[in-house]
Design a protein that fits this description.
homodimer; 403 residues; alpha+beta; Molybdenum Cofactor Biosythetic Enzyme, Chain A; Alpha-Beta Plaits; Maf protein; 3 domains; four-stranded mixed sheet; 14 helices; 43% helix
Chain lengths: 403, 403
C-alpha cells in the first residue's frame, strides 16, 4: 500500500557490499503465499544467497517461514529452545501468551535459528543444496542487529576479499563533465573501480577496492584518487570521505580557530541553517542576519541607500556590502552574503529568476560570484536557493583556506 | 550498493492504491542490461502495468530506455522537441552540452514523452499489446511530479471510478493518539476511506472517496472531515489540502496584511528558511536574526545581560526577550524566537538535549512554550531542530489568527 519505505533493502545491500557479495536482485511481494512461493523459487534459481525480511510474526498474515519450508521441501518441527524463549519473553512482559505465538517456535527441519534479541520472532538459516536461505524479521530494529550479529559471521566465511571504498566530493563541475573527464580512467579500471553519483547539485566519486586486507585496499585507492585530483582539478574537490560542504567548512574553521557570519537574502536562512546542522557549529558561527527587504539590508547590515538605489538589491555591490556589513556587526573573520531572485515571480529580462550574487569577504580573500541558476523548470525555487547556499558554503571554504 | 533508500516504490504504491490498482510485485536490479531485460520481460508477462524508475540519464550506466525499447521490439528515434528542450536547458545554464546529453532525446518509436519539469531526462510511456510500460526518472524530485501530473491522468482512464481525496493536516497530536481517537470511525468506513500518515512530526489524514464523478466524491468526503474535526479538535487542525505549516502561515499573513520576524538560536535559520520557501514570502517577512551566541543575543536582539546571566540562554525569559527584540528591530507585527539544545553535546541534567523554548510575541497573543524533543536516538539533532521550527510556525499561525 506504500505506507512503509523499505529501508531494510539498502541496509542489507550495504552490508553485503562490504563482503564483496553482489546484490543482483531485490524483490517485494505482499502477504500472498502463491506469489511469495514463486518469488522464492525464482530467487533460489538465480542466486547463491537469498535473504528475506518480514512475515515471521505470529499473525495469520505471517507466512514467510511456512512458505520457505515448503519451497525447500522441509517439514516444520517445533524447536524446544525457541518455545522456551518465547514463553519466557511473555512471562517477563507479564502478558498472556496466545496460541498463535507458539507458531513462532516452529522451524523448518534442519534449519538453524538466528537469535532475535529485540523481538519474539526468531530468524531462520537454511543451508541446503549449495544455497543459503536466510529469513529475517521485518522491523528494522530487529532485522539490523540480527543481520549484523547472526547472519554476517556466516556469510563472511564465504567471502575471500575485503572491500573498502573512499568518496571524493566535487563541487562546481557537473556530472556529465566529470564523466567525460574520467571516461577513459573509469573504463580502464577493474580493481579499484570508480563510479560517479550526482547528489544535490554535487558529484561524488566512489573508489572501491577489493583486497586481502582493508589496509591493502586503501593503498590501492590512493593512486586513483591522485589521478582523479589531476583530472578534475584540485580546486574543485572539497574533500575525501567528508559528509558534505558544511561539515568540511565547520571542521576547517575549528582547526583554524576562525569564525564566519552570514547575511542572507535570497537563501532566506538556508546558509546559516546548513552551517548549524553541524554539531559544534557554535564554536565557529555566532551571527546570521536574514535581510529580506532593502530597508533591513540598510538598517541592520549597513548597505548604503545609494548602493541600493543605484544598483538595486540584485547587484554585486549590494552583495559585497552585505558581506562586509555582517562581518563588521558580528566581528567574524569571514562574512558571506547572498542576494538574488528565487522566483517563480519577480524576475525580469534584466534580472531573471535564478540570478544570484554570492559575496564573501575576509582579510585575504574577497569575491563576488554571479550565478544563473534557473533551469527553466516549474517550482525550482528550492533548487535555486539550495545551489546558491552551496556556493556560499564553498566560497566560505575557499576564504577559510586562504586565512 | 545500498547508498540509496528506495522511497520511489512506496510513493508509487500509495498513488496506485488511490486508483484501486493492486501492486503485486516490486523489483530492483542494477545497471545491467541482461538482468534489466529479464526483469522487464518477467514484469510484462505477469502484470498489466509496469512502471520503472531510474536509468534515464545521460551517462553510459543509464540504459533503461534502450533496454525497454529492445524488450518491446521498438527502434529508437530522435525526438526533435526533446532535443530542443535539452539544448535550451544547457544554453540557459551557460554550460556546454556534451554529446552524451543528446542520448536523452532518443525515444522508442511510437512512445509518448512524459514531461520532466524538474530535470533533463524525459519520461517515456509505451502502450502496446494491452500493456502499459512507463519509464520514470530516478530522483524523487523528478519522479514524483511526473507520476502525479503526467502518468496518473493516463492510468485514471483505466479506472472505472474517479478517486478523489482531501488531506487534513494535524499538528500537536501524535499518530497513535490520532489513531485511537479515530479507530472506530476508520474501521466503520468503506467508502470514503480514512488513512493516517505520520510525516515530519505531523499527522496527515487522507480521506479518499471513489465515486462516479469528482464532484460527488468531494460531497462524500465533507461529512467525514466534519467528524474528524470533532474527534481531533479544531484547534489541532491547521488546514485541509494545504501544503504545509509555512504555506498556511504565509497565506494567512498575506490575507491579513501582517508581517512576522524571526530570532533564532537552536533552529539556526530553519524557521526563516521555511517561511521563505513559500513564494511571496517577501510580502510578509523582512527580517530574521540568527543569534547563535549570548553576545549576539544581547547586542543584536537586546536580550538583557541580566536575563542571560540569571536565567541562561535556555530559559523562557531569554526566548521572550528575543521575540520582543526582533519585533522591535524589524517593526513586524509578530516576533518568534527559539532557543535550546539540539545536541548531541552540550546537554546537562538541568538542560537536557532536546530542551527548546519557543516564544511568540504580538499585540493579542504572547506565549512561551517549553518543549522536550529528545527521543533518545543517535543523530537526532536535525529532528529536534525541525520539530522546534514547526512549533515556531504553528505558534506564528495562532498569533496571526488572533490579530
Amino acid at each position: 500500500m506504500g505506507d512503509i519505505v523499505n529501508t531494510n533493502a539498502a541496509y542489507i545491500s550495504k552490508r553485503l557490499a562490504a563482503l564483496g557479495i553482489n546484490v543482483f536482485h531485490q524483490s517485494v511481494v505482499g502477504d500472498n503465499p502463491k506469489r511469495l512461493a514463486e518469488s522464492l523459487k525464482e530467487a533460489l534459481a538465480r542466486c547463491n544467497v537469498v535473504i528475506t525480511t518480514g512475515g515471521l510474526g505470529p499473525t495469520c498474515d505471517d507466512l514467510t517461514k511456512e512458505t520457505a519450508a515448503q519451497v525447500m521441501g522441509l517439514p516444520m518441527v517445533e524447536n524446544t529452545a525457541e518455545l522456551g524463549r518465547i514463553t519466557e519473553y511473555f512471562r517477563m512482559l507479564d502478558r498472556p501468551m496466545t496460541e498463535n505465538n507458539k507458531k513462532q517456535a516452529l522451524v523448518p527441519s534442519g534449519a538453524a535459528v538466528l537469535k532475535n534479541n529485540y523481538g519474539t520472532a526468531p530468524g531462520i538459516l537454511i543451508e541446503k543444496d549449495g544455497k543459503i536461505l536466510a529469513l529475517l524479521p521485518g522491523p528494522p530494529r530487529e532485522m539490523c542487529p540480527m543481520l549484523d550479529n547472526e547472519l554476517m559471521p556466516v556469510l563472511e566465511k564465504y567471502s575471500e576479499k575485503t572491500f573498502v571504498s573512499r568518496t571524493v566530493h566535487i563541487f562546481n563541475v557537473g556530472e556529465s563533465a566529470v564523466e567525460s573527464k574520467l571516461h577513459d580512467l573509469m573504463n580502464s579500471l577493474e580493481n579499484p573501480t570508480l563510479a560517479p553519483y550526482a547528489k544535490d547539485g554535487e558529484v561524488l566519486l566512489r573508489v572501491t577496492a577489493a583486497a586481502e586486507s582493508a589496509e591493502k585496499g586503501y593503498e590501492m585507492i590512493e593512486p586513483i584518487i591522485a589521478k582523479v585530483r589531476k583530472a578534475i582539478g584540485d580546486e574543485n574537490i572539497y574533500g575525501v570521505d567528508v559528509e558534505n560542504l558544511q561539515t568540511a567548512l565547520v571542521r576547517l574553521l575549528r582547526e583554524k580557530n576562525l569564525k564566519v557570519a552570514t547575511a542572507e537574502s535570497v537563501t532566506g536562512g538556508l546558509v546559516s541553517k546548513r552551517i548549524t546542522e553541524v554539531s559544534g557549529a557554535s564554536e565557529v558561527f555566532e551571527c546570521g542576519v536574514c535581510s529580506y527587504s532593502n530597508s533591513i539590508k540598510n538598517k541592520l547590515l549597513g548597505v548604503s541607500r545609494e548602493t541600493l538605489d543605484r544598483f538595486t538589491e540584485y547587484s554585486p555591490e549590494t552583495a559585497m556590502e552585505m558581506a562586509k556589513g555582517i562581518r563588521e556587526i558580528s566581528g567574524a573573520d569571514i562574512g558571506v552574503a547572498t542576494t538574488g531572485i528565487a522566483g517563480p515571480n519577480g524576475g525580469s529580462a534584466e534580472n531573471p529568476v535564478g540570478l544570484v550574487y554570492v559575496a564573501v569577504d575576509s582579510d585575504n580573500y574577497s569575491e563576488v560570484k554571479k550565478l544563473l541558476l534557473s533551469r527553466g523548470y516549474a517550482e525550482e525555487r528550492e533548487f535555486i536557493r539550495y545551489i546558491a547556499s552551496s556556493h556560499a558554503l564553498y566560497m566560505l571554504l575557499k576564504a577559510t583556506e586562504s586565512l
